[in-house]
Design a protein that fits this description.
By secondary structure, the protein is α+β, with helices and mostly antiparallel strands. The chain folds into two domains: 147 residues, Aminotransferase class 4, branched-chain amino acid transferase, N-terminal domain (D-amino Acid Aminotransferase, Chain A, domain 1), CATH 3.30.470.10; 162 residues, D-amino Acid Aminotransferase, Chain A, domain 2, CATH 3.20.10.10. It has seven helices and 17 strands. Strands 1, 2, 3, 4, 5, 6, 7, 8 and 17 form a nine-stranded antiparallel β-sheet that branches. Strands 9, 10, 11, 12, 13, 14, 15 and 16 form an eight-stranded mixed β-sheet that branches. Strand 11 and strand 12 form a beta hairpin. The longest helix has 14 residues. The radius of gyration is 20 Å and the shape is globular. It starts with 20 loop residues before the first strand and ends with a strand. The model has no long low-confidence stretch (mean pLDDT 97). The protein binds pyridoxal-5'-phosphate and 2-OXO-4-methylpentanoic acid. The site of 2-OXO-4-methylpentanoic acid has 5 residues, from loops.
Length: 341
Protein backbone atom coordinates (compact mmCIF):
# COMPACT_ATOMS: atom_id res chain seq x y z
CA UNK A 1 0.00 0.00 0.00
CA UNK A 2 1.52 3.29 -1.10
CA UNK A 3 1.19 5.96 1.58
CA UNK A 4 0.03 9.53 0.88
CA UNK A 5 2.70 12.15 0.50
CA UNK A 6 2.32 13.78 3.92
CA UNK A 7 5.04 15.22 6.17
CA UNK A 8 4.01 12.82 8.96
CA UNK A 9 6.50 14.04 11.56
CA UNK A 10 5.34 17.64 11.35
CA UNK A 11 1.55 17.37 11.37
CA UNK A 12 -0.41 18.76 14.30
CA UNK A 13 -3.79 17.78 15.68
CA UNK A 14 -5.97 18.98 12.80
CA UNK A 15 -8.48 17.75 10.25
CA UNK A 16 -7.22 16.33 6.97
CA UNK A 17 -9.89 14.98 4.65
CA UNK A 18 -9.27 11.32 3.89
CA UNK A 19 -10.77 9.20 1.10
CA UNK A 20 -13.66 7.30 2.68
CA UNK A 21 -16.03 7.56 5.63
CA UNK A 22 -18.73 5.25 6.99
CA UNK A 23 -22.40 6.28 7.19
CA UNK A 24 -25.44 4.50 8.61
CA UNK A 25 -28.92 5.97 9.08
CA UNK A 26 -31.54 5.17 11.72
CA UNK A 27 -35.16 5.49 10.57
CA UNK A 28 -38.46 3.83 11.53
CA UNK A 29 -36.80 2.25 14.53
CA UNK A 30 -33.91 0.49 12.73
CA UNK A 31 -30.36 1.11 11.49
CA UNK A 32 -29.75 0.55 7.78
CA UNK A 33 -26.85 -1.65 6.69
CA UNK A 34 -24.35 1.25 6.35
CA UNK A 35 -21.93 2.15 3.56
CA UNK A 36 -18.52 3.63 2.92
CA UNK A 37 -18.77 6.83 0.91
CA UNK A 38 -16.51 9.47 -0.57
CA UNK A 39 -19.00 12.20 0.32
CA UNK A 40 -17.64 14.19 3.24
CA UNK A 41 -20.69 16.45 3.51
CA UNK A 42 -23.86 16.00 5.57
CA UNK A 43 -27.19 17.34 4.30
CA UNK A 44 -29.90 17.57 6.96
CA UNK A 45 -33.04 19.58 7.73
CA UNK A 46 -32.57 23.12 9.01
CA UNK A 47 -34.57 21.97 12.02
CA UNK A 48 -32.57 18.78 12.74
CA UNK A 49 -32.38 17.75 16.41
CA UNK A 50 -28.62 18.19 16.41
CA UNK A 51 -28.85 21.78 15.15
CA UNK A 52 -31.59 22.89 17.54
CA UNK A 53 -30.96 20.97 20.76
CA UNK A 54 -27.38 19.66 20.37
CA UNK A 55 -28.33 15.99 20.24
CA UNK A 56 -24.91 14.72 19.26
CA UNK A 57 -22.35 12.34 20.78
CA UNK A 58 -18.95 11.13 19.64
CA UNK A 59 -15.94 8.94 20.30
CA UNK A 60 -12.22 9.17 19.61
CA UNK A 61 -9.68 6.38 19.10
CA UNK A 62 -6.56 5.84 17.04
CA UNK A 63 -5.08 3.39 14.54
CA UNK A 64 -1.35 2.70 14.83
CA UNK A 65 1.24 1.12 12.57
CA UNK A 66 3.11 -1.41 14.67
CA UNK A 67 6.85 -2.04 14.66
CA UNK A 68 6.29 -5.11 12.44
CA UNK A 69 4.09 -3.22 9.95
CA UNK A 70 0.57 -4.23 11.01
CA UNK A 71 -2.23 -1.68 11.47
CA UNK A 72 -4.09 -2.00 14.76
CA UNK A 73 -6.40 -0.03 16.98
CA UNK A 74 -6.63 0.08 20.75
CA UNK A 75 -9.60 -1.26 22.75
CA UNK A 76 -12.36 -0.20 20.29
CA UNK A 77 -14.83 -2.30 22.29
CA UNK A 78 -14.59 0.25 25.10
CA UNK A 79 -15.35 3.12 22.70
CA UNK A 80 -18.33 1.14 21.40
CA UNK A 81 -19.76 0.66 24.88
CA UNK A 82 -19.07 4.26 25.92
CA UNK A 83 -20.90 5.53 22.81
CA UNK A 84 -23.81 3.30 23.77
CA UNK A 85 -23.80 4.84 27.28
CA UNK A 86 -23.73 8.32 25.76
CA UNK A 87 -26.64 7.42 23.45
CA UNK A 88 -28.79 6.14 26.32
CA UNK A 89 -28.20 9.33 28.35
CA UNK A 90 -29.28 11.56 25.43
CA UNK A 91 -32.26 9.37 24.44
CA UNK A 92 -30.63 8.27 21.19
CA UNK A 93 -30.74 4.76 19.73
CA UNK A 94 -27.69 2.60 20.46
CA UNK A 95 -25.53 1.76 17.45
CA UNK A 96 -24.85 -1.98 17.95
CA UNK A 97 -21.42 -2.41 19.56
CA UNK A 98 -20.24 -5.17 17.16
CA UNK A 99 -21.24 -3.01 14.20
CA UNK A 100 -19.35 -0.05 15.72
CA UNK A 101 -16.15 -2.11 15.69
CA UNK A 102 -16.80 -3.31 12.11
CA UNK A 103 -17.42 0.28 10.98
CA UNK A 104 -14.14 1.42 12.57
CA UNK A 105 -12.22 -1.44 10.94
CA UNK A 106 -13.77 -0.83 7.51
CA UNK A 107 -13.13 2.91 7.63
CA UNK A 108 -9.48 2.50 8.64
CA UNK A 109 -8.95 -0.16 5.94
CA UNK A 110 -10.45 2.17 3.33
CA UNK A 111 -8.01 4.91 4.41
CA UNK A 112 -4.93 2.72 4.86
CA UNK A 113 -2.84 5.14 2.80
CA UNK A 114 -3.36 7.75 5.52
CA UNK A 115 -2.23 5.60 8.45
CA UNK A 116 1.07 7.21 9.47
CA UNK A 117 4.14 4.97 9.33
CA UNK A 118 5.69 3.44 12.43
CA UNK A 119 8.07 5.78 14.21
CA UNK A 120 6.72 8.98 12.59
CA UNK A 121 5.11 10.20 15.81
CA UNK A 122 1.76 10.52 14.01
CA UNK A 123 -1.31 8.24 14.15
CA UNK A 124 -4.67 7.97 12.41
CA UNK A 125 -7.35 9.51 14.62
CA UNK A 126 -10.76 7.87 14.25
CA UNK A 127 -13.89 9.88 15.01
CA UNK A 128 -17.18 7.93 15.28
CA UNK A 129 -20.20 10.12 16.01
CA UNK A 130 -23.97 10.18 15.91
CA UNK A 131 -26.59 12.94 15.73
CA UNK A 132 -30.32 13.57 15.53
CA UNK A 133 -31.10 14.30 11.88
CA UNK A 134 -34.84 14.86 11.48
CA UNK A 135 -36.80 18.06 12.29
CA UNK A 136 -37.49 18.63 16.00
CA UNK A 137 -38.99 21.88 17.25
CA UNK A 138 -40.64 20.94 20.57
CA UNK A 139 -37.95 19.85 23.02
CA UNK A 140 -37.85 16.08 22.49
CA UNK A 141 -35.50 13.46 21.05
CA UNK A 142 -35.23 13.12 17.27
CA UNK A 143 -36.64 9.96 15.68
CA UNK A 144 -34.02 9.72 12.93
CA UNK A 145 -30.25 9.60 13.42
CA UNK A 146 -27.04 9.34 11.47
CA UNK A 147 -23.95 7.44 12.66
CA UNK A 148 -20.69 8.26 10.90
CA UNK A 149 -17.01 7.43 11.20
CA UNK A 150 -14.25 9.50 9.64
CA UNK A 151 -10.49 9.40 10.05
CA UNK A 152 -7.75 12.01 9.97
CA UNK A 153 -4.00 11.68 10.44
CA UNK A 154 -2.80 13.56 13.53
CA UNK A 155 0.33 14.53 15.41
CA UNK A 156 0.58 15.66 19.05
CA UNK A 157 -2.47 17.35 20.64
CA UNK A 158 -0.34 19.96 22.39
CA UNK A 159 2.20 21.91 20.34
CA UNK A 160 5.63 20.96 21.57
CA UNK A 161 4.71 17.28 21.98
CA UNK A 162 6.16 15.98 25.22
CA UNK A 163 7.09 19.38 26.67
CA UNK A 164 5.30 20.02 30.01
CA UNK A 165 2.33 22.36 29.85
CA UNK A 166 0.87 24.98 32.20
CA UNK A 167 -2.70 24.71 33.41
CA UNK A 168 -5.12 27.20 34.90
CA UNK A 169 -7.68 26.31 37.55
CA UNK A 170 -10.80 27.43 35.72
CA UNK A 171 -13.45 29.74 37.11
CA UNK A 172 -15.96 27.96 34.87
CA UNK A 173 -17.49 24.54 35.53
CA UNK A 174 -17.54 21.80 32.94
CA UNK A 175 -20.17 19.43 34.27
CA UNK A 176 -22.95 19.55 36.84
CA UNK A 177 -23.45 16.87 39.48
CA UNK A 178 -25.88 14.35 37.93
CA UNK A 179 -25.37 16.03 34.54
CA UNK A 180 -23.58 14.78 31.42
CA UNK A 181 -19.88 15.02 32.36
CA UNK A 182 -19.51 11.22 32.29
CA UNK A 183 -20.59 10.88 28.65
CA UNK A 184 -19.03 12.12 25.43
CA UNK A 185 -21.71 14.58 24.34
CA UNK A 186 -20.92 17.52 22.05
CA UNK A 187 -22.66 19.84 24.50
CA UNK A 188 -19.89 19.30 27.10
CA UNK A 189 -17.36 20.61 24.61
CA UNK A 190 -19.47 23.55 23.40
CA UNK A 191 -19.67 24.88 26.93
CA UNK A 192 -15.91 24.53 27.43
CA UNK A 193 -15.06 26.74 24.44
CA UNK A 194 -15.30 30.08 26.23
CA UNK A 195 -13.20 28.69 29.09
CA UNK A 196 -10.45 27.41 26.79
CA UNK A 197 -10.34 30.58 24.68
CA UNK A 198 -10.05 32.57 27.94
CA UNK A 199 -7.27 30.30 29.26
CA UNK A 200 -5.32 30.52 25.99
CA UNK A 201 -5.68 34.32 25.93
CA UNK A 202 -4.13 34.39 29.42
CA UNK A 203 -1.21 32.24 28.25
CA UNK A 204 -2.27 28.84 29.65
CA UNK A 205 -2.34 25.61 27.67
CA UNK A 206 -5.41 24.06 29.31
CA UNK A 207 -7.98 24.33 32.10
CA UNK A 208 -8.36 22.26 35.22
CA UNK A 209 -12.05 21.98 36.02
CA UNK A 210 -13.18 21.47 39.61
CA UNK A 211 -16.23 19.64 40.89
CA UNK A 212 -19.15 22.03 40.40
CA UNK A 213 -20.77 21.09 43.73
CA UNK A 214 -17.98 22.18 46.11
CA UNK A 215 -15.23 23.54 43.84
CA UNK A 216 -12.63 21.84 46.04
CA UNK A 217 -11.89 18.67 44.04
CA UNK A 218 -10.00 18.05 40.80
CA UNK A 219 -12.15 16.80 37.91
CA UNK A 220 -10.48 16.88 34.49
CA UNK A 221 -9.54 19.16 31.60
CA UNK A 222 -11.64 19.85 28.53
CA UNK A 223 -10.30 16.77 26.74
CA UNK A 224 -8.34 14.54 29.14
CA UNK A 225 -8.29 13.00 32.63
CA UNK A 226 -5.64 13.83 35.24
CA UNK A 227 -3.03 11.48 36.56
CA UNK A 228 -0.76 12.30 39.52
CA UNK A 229 2.28 10.60 40.99
CA UNK A 230 2.98 10.91 44.72
CA UNK A 231 6.47 11.59 46.05
CA UNK A 232 6.78 7.89 46.91
CA UNK A 233 5.77 6.74 43.43
CA UNK A 234 2.06 5.91 43.77
CA UNK A 235 -0.13 6.67 40.74
CA UNK A 236 -3.33 8.52 41.71
CA UNK A 237 -6.29 9.54 39.53
CA UNK A 238 -9.37 11.53 40.52
CA UNK A 239 -12.56 9.56 41.13
CA UNK A 240 -15.73 11.40 40.15
CA UNK A 241 -19.07 10.56 38.62
CA UNK A 242 -18.96 13.69 36.48
CA UNK A 243 -15.74 13.06 34.53
CA UNK A 244 -15.40 11.09 31.32
CA UNK A 245 -14.25 7.53 32.08
CA UNK A 246 -11.09 7.74 29.98
CA UNK A 247 -10.03 4.53 28.28
CA UNK A 248 -6.42 5.71 28.34
CA UNK A 249 -6.61 6.37 32.09
CA UNK A 250 -8.18 2.97 32.81
CA UNK A 251 -5.48 1.31 30.69
CA UNK A 252 -2.69 3.27 32.38
CA UNK A 253 -3.85 2.29 35.85
CA UNK A 254 -3.68 -1.36 34.77
CA UNK A 255 -0.26 -0.84 33.19
CA UNK A 256 1.04 0.93 36.33
CA UNK A 257 0.01 -1.98 38.51
CA UNK A 258 0.53 -5.02 36.31
CA UNK A 259 3.48 -3.99 34.11
CA UNK A 260 5.36 -1.58 36.36
CA UNK A 261 4.47 -2.93 39.82
CA UNK A 262 3.37 0.50 41.06
CA UNK A 263 0.76 1.19 43.66
CA UNK A 264 -2.37 2.80 42.21
CA UNK A 265 -5.31 4.63 43.71
CA UNK A 266 -8.50 6.09 42.26
CA UNK A 267 -9.88 8.52 44.81
CA UNK A 268 -11.11 12.06 45.32
CA UNK A 269 -8.21 14.48 44.80
CA UNK A 270 -8.44 17.86 46.54
CA UNK A 271 -7.09 21.07 45.07
CA UNK A 272 -5.47 21.74 48.44
CA UNK A 273 -3.24 18.65 48.22
CA UNK A 274 -1.68 19.24 44.79
CA UNK A 275 1.62 20.37 46.35
CA UNK A 276 2.04 16.84 47.69
CA UNK A 277 2.44 15.32 44.21
CA UNK A 278 5.75 14.94 42.38
CA UNK A 279 4.37 14.53 38.85
CA UNK A 280 1.21 15.35 36.96
CA UNK A 281 0.00 14.41 33.50
CA UNK A 282 -3.07 14.54 31.26
CA UNK A 283 -4.19 11.31 29.68
CA UNK A 284 -6.49 10.60 26.78
CA UNK A 285 -6.53 9.34 23.22
CA UNK A 286 -5.54 12.70 21.79
CA UNK A 287 -3.30 13.73 24.71
CA UNK A 288 -1.71 10.23 25.13
CA UNK A 289 0.11 11.37 28.30
CA UNK A 290 0.98 15.03 28.24
CA UNK A 291 3.12 16.13 31.19
CA UNK A 292 1.94 19.07 33.31
CA UNK A 293 4.74 21.23 34.73
CA UNK A 294 2.69 23.85 36.52
CA UNK A 295 -0.85 24.48 37.75
CA UNK A 296 -1.92 28.02 38.60
CA UNK A 297 -4.80 28.59 41.01
CA UNK A 298 -5.47 32.33 41.09
CA UNK A 299 -1.89 33.34 41.78
CA UNK A 300 -0.98 30.22 43.78
CA UNK A 301 1.54 28.30 41.67
CA UNK A 302 1.93 24.57 42.02
CA UNK A 303 5.20 23.59 40.35
CA UNK A 304 5.85 19.86 40.04
CA UNK A 305 9.33 18.55 40.87
CA UNK A 306 9.54 17.09 37.35
CA UNK A 307 9.90 20.67 36.05
CA UNK A 308 9.12 22.39 32.75
CA UNK A 309 11.67 20.63 30.55
CA UNK A 310 10.67 16.98 30.42
CA UNK A 311 8.26 14.33 31.66
CA UNK A 312 8.74 13.03 35.18
CA UNK A 313 10.33 9.57 35.47
CA UNK A 314 7.14 7.67 36.38
CA UNK A 315 5.10 9.49 33.71
CA UNK A 316 7.79 8.59 31.18
CA UNK A 317 7.66 4.90 32.14
CA UNK A 318 3.88 4.90 31.84
CA UNK A 319 4.12 6.62 28.45
CA UNK A 320 6.73 4.19 27.14
CA UNK A 321 4.79 1.16 28.32
CA UNK A 322 1.41 2.28 26.97
CA UNK A 323 2.79 3.34 23.58
CA UNK A 324 4.90 0.14 23.52
CA UNK A 325 1.69 -1.88 23.84
CA UNK A 326 -0.13 0.22 21.23
CA UNK A 327 2.70 -0.02 18.70
CA UNK A 328 3.38 -3.70 19.21
CA UNK A 329 6.75 -3.41 20.98
CA UNK A 330 5.33 -4.93 24.18
CA UNK A 331 2.88 -7.76 24.61
CA UNK A 332 -0.64 -6.44 25.17
CA UNK A 333 -3.15 -7.76 27.70
CA UNK A 334 -5.73 -10.10 26.15
CA UNK A 335 -8.24 -8.24 23.97
CA UNK A 336 -6.57 -4.82 23.99
CA UNK A 337 -5.37 -4.80 20.38
CA UNK A 338 -7.71 -5.10 17.41
CA UNK A 339 -5.88 -6.06 14.22
CA UNK A 340 -7.07 -4.19 11.15
CA UNK A 341 -4.52 -5.02 8.45
N1 LIG B 1 -11.90 13.49 29.20
C1 LIG B 1 -12.48 14.16 28.19
C2 LIG B 1 -13.36 15.30 28.52
C3 LIG B 1 -12.24 13.76 26.86
O1 LIG B 1 -12.80 14.42 25.84
C4 LIG B 1 -11.38 12.67 26.62
C5 LIG B 1 -11.12 12.21 25.25
O2 LIG B 1 -11.69 11.30 24.77
C6 LIG B 1 -10.80 12.00 27.71
C7 LIG B 1 -11.09 12.45 28.98
C8 LIG B 1 -9.90 10.84 27.50
O3 LIG B 1 -10.63 9.69 27.20
P1 LIG B 1 -10.00 8.52 26.34
O4 LIG B 1 -8.78 8.08 27.07
O5 LIG B 1 -11.04 7.47 26.35
O6 LIG B 1 -9.70 9.08 25.02
C1 LIG C 1 -9.93 12.32 22.37
O1 LIG C 1 -8.93 12.26 23.07
O2 LIG C 1 -10.23 11.45 21.57
C2 LIG C 1 -10.85 13.44 22.45
O3 LIG C 1 -11.96 13.32 22.04
C3 LIG C 1 -10.41 14.69 23.06
C4 LIG C 1 -10.69 15.85 22.17
C5 LIG C 1 -10.42 17.07 22.99
C6 LIG C 1 -9.87 15.84 20.92
Amino acid sequence: MEKKNIDWSNIGFGYVKTDKRYVSNFKDGAWDQGVLTEDDTVVISECAGVLQYAQTIFEGLKAYTTEDGRIVCFRPDLNASRLADSARRLEMPVFPEDRFIEAVVETVKANEAYVPPYGSGATLYIRPYMFGSNPVIGVKPASEYQFRVFTTPVGPYFKGGAKPITIKVSDFDRAAPHGTGHIKAGLNYAMSLHAIVTAHAEGYDENMYLDAGTRTKVEETGGANFLFVTKDGKVVTPKSSSILPSITRRSLMYVAKEYLGLETEEREVFLSELDDFAECGLCGTAAVISPVGKIVDHGREICFASGMEKMGPVTQKLYDTLTGIQMGRLEAPEGWIKEIV
